Amino acid sequence: MRIVAKGLTYTYNPKSPFASQALKGVDIVIEEGEFFGIIGHTGSGKSTFVQHLNALIRLTGGSLTVGDYDLADKKCKFLELRSKVGMVFQYPEYQLFAETVEKDVMFGLKNFHKEMKEEEMRTAVREALERVDLNYEEVKDKSPFELSGGQRRRVAIAGVIVTRPEILILDEPAAGLDPLGKKEIMQLLHAIHGSWCKTVIIVSHDMDEISENCTRAAVFSEGKVVMEDTPAAIFCRSDELVSLGLDIPVTAKCARLLKERGIEVQTDFTCDDFIGRVLALWKERGKADAQ
Ligand code: ADP
Ligand code: MG
Questions:
Q1: Rounded to the nearest whole angstrom, what is the distance from the C-alpha of residue 264 to the centroid of ligand 2?
Q2: Sign of dihedral through CA atoms 70, 72, 74, 79?
Q3: Which atom, in ligand 1's list, is nearest to the CA of 223?
Q4: What is the mean pLDDT of residues 66-87?
């Protein structure tokens, strides 16, 4: 399912003294199959935008289509859309509430598939928990509170992917995890992207996460998209990002420092590529010095 937004606007508490215009004309296209990143300062409209994609926030201005679903159409099948566009909120583990892991994951399914038999549901729950690398037999009867933070986050993700959404959106999926936990969550999202959900969209303020993982990304600023491109092209414009108050990947920082010393590194800003290019330059110089 391809996502196309044109001139999307949204105001919280309209017609009140507390009115706040969160989206001021967002144009964006996200192709099916992408691992898409959304970056931007706090308050730039990222969460408001992604909540439009499964109609948690109803469209009030502009146009938005997700596959064949036209969200401006009052007759749009919103429940069906929600089962196909899964949304994992920030710190989703705090929203687990059922007595057992199995019941929690099943809750998501019951909402959308009232006709499903208990046995079918159990199979779906088992598959979703296994997909997030949890041992079904070990965790199914546990209270979510008996699990570690990282495991709870996996349960929350299982509760969303259990409907087999085509598009999976995660708001800051790695926030608050230690470096190993972050790496594991990103590996998990790639595995889900390859096998389970066609499109993955992450909101992140971690630029290394974006440069290492995303096919393309959009930069939000003050309710608009100011850049939409591959991470390689976006991080070439590091001066602009810095002037927007945004961070840049560590590779882009190193490239800037090298440039100040007269060494230009052409890189896509992934660590692997950056190191490879620096080594190649170093070898070339070694040869030149030897001659
Ligand atoms: P981001 O996710 O990029 O931090 P948000 O979409 O959460 O940005 O917020 C965009 C703007 O909308 C901000 O100015 C924020 O204060 C405002 N906003 C967000 N949620 C609400 C809300 N529930 N009520 C009122 N204003 C809100
Ligand atoms: Mg947000």
A1: 35
A2: positive
A3: 10
A4: 96
Q: Atom 7 of ligand 1 has which residue's CA nearest to it? A: 47
- Residue ranges of the chain assigned to CATH 3.40.50.300: 3-240
What are the φ and ψ backbone dihedral angles of 140, each rounded to 5 degrees? -60, -40
Q: Which residue has the higher pLDDT, 149 or 199?
A: 199
Cβ–Cβ under 8 Å, residues 244 and 64: no
pLDDT of amino acid 285? 83
Highest mean pLDDT out of 29-43, 101-115, 170-184: 29-43
- Minimal-distance CA residue to ligand 1 atom 15: 43
| Whole-number Å distance between alpha carbons of 146 and 75 | 43
Among the listed ranges 94-98, 156-160, 188-192, 272-276, which one has the minimum average pLDDT value? 94-98
| Helix (H), strand (E), coil (C) string for 2-40 | CEEEEEEEEEECCCCCCCEEEEEEEEEEECCCCEEEEEE
* pLDDT at residue 111, rounded to an integer: 85
Mean pLDDT of the chain: 95
Q: What is the 289 CA–ligand 1 centroid distance (Å)?
A: 56
CA 135 – ligand 2 centroid, Å:
31
Residue 30's φ and ψ, nearest 5 degrees, are -120, 120
Are the C-beta atoms of residues 57 and 64 closer than 8 Å to each other?
no
The sign one gets for the Cα dihedral 74, 75, 79, 81 is negative
Residue 190 near residue 107 (C-beta atoms within 8 A): no
Q: Which two tokens stand for residue 241?
A: 């990002």
φ/ψ of residue 65, rounded to 5: -125, 145
How is domain 3-240 classified at the CATH fold level? Rossmann fold (3.40.50)
Q: pLDDT-derived band of residue 19, with 50, 70 and 90 as boundaries?
A: very high
